[in-house]
Amino acid sequence: MDLSPILDRLKSQLTGFKAIGSAADLEAIGHGVIPIPSCYLVPMSESAEDNDLLGGYEQRLSVGFSVILATSNRRDAVGAAALADLEALRSMIRVALVGWPPEPALGEPVRYLSGSLLRFDDGLLWWADEFRVTSYLRSP
Question: pTM for the whole thing?
Answer without folding.
Answer: 0.87
